[in-house]
Write a structure and sequence with these properties.
Glutaredoxin, alpha+beta, 5 helices, two-stranded antiparallel ribbon, 2 domains, 36% helix
Length: 211
């Protein structure tokens, strides 16, 4: 009799532990693991950029889309091309995610002096023709980038065009209401360029889209 009690007790404990494990796994599936989510969505200032097709791109073009946004410049030697290649690598999987609002990728150049419409078109098309590339004057770019929680610094030489631009390496997420909700920060790994991880983005975007 006592043996049956021990057996029954063991089964109950196993069932309880199994239920707790299952609940924890289900909870993990509904939690963001990598996105640095802002406490409140951030509204963006009114802005007007010029895209690679020489068309206006502004706040209205963010509405109804999830937008992964990256700030950089076409002459960037490492972070920008590596990040855009990473985004291109996961883009087919992102497009297959079930969502009421489609997803788009936006590359904002903070180097309007050198990044003409033609150059933006050539540059972004190399990675993915669906990607959007756009720029504007610094009077538009600086407050826009700052509102996203990003930064850039530029020291333009009047003697030549050979200069670098310091800029954030994170990828910002903008919701279909045109608000910034957070960012994927660079994944620092020894011996590699520190960029946002495509696998981390793939892990969290389904959670965001399911909300």
């Amino acid at each position: 009799m006592s043996g049956n009690k021990f057996l029954l007790g063991g089964l109950l404990i196993a069932a309880l532990l199994g239920g707790l494990w299952l609940a924890s796994q289900q909870q993990k599936g509904t939690q963001l693991r990598y996105l640095q989510e802002y406490p409140q969505p951030r509204a963006l200032p009114e802005f007007s950029l010029r895209n690679q097709h020489d068309q206006a791109f502004g706040n209205a073009d963010l509405l109804g889309h999830w937008t992964l946004t990256f700030v950089g410049y076409t002459y960037c030697p490492d972070i920008c091309p590596t990040t855009l290649a990473e985004l291109n690598g996961i883009y087919p999987q992102l497009q297959q995610l079930p969502a009421d609002s489609p997803l788009q990728v936006l590359f904002i150049s903070v180097d309007p002096k050198r990044d003409s419409v033609a150059r933006l078109n050539e540059y972004v098309s190399y990675f993915n023709q669906d990607f959007i590339a756009a720029t504007a004057g610094h009077d538009v770019l600086f407050p826009l980038v700052r509102a996203m929680g990003m930064m850039y610094g530029i020291s333009e030489s009047t003697e030549n065009d050979d200069y670098l631009v310091d800029h954030s390496a994170s990828i910002v997420v903008i919701n279909p209401q045109g608000q910034v909700i957070g960012r994927f920060k660079p994944d620092n790994q020894p011996g590699k360029v520190a960029i946002a991880s495509g696998q981390q983005i793939l892990a969290d975007m389904p959670v965001l889209l399911a909300r």
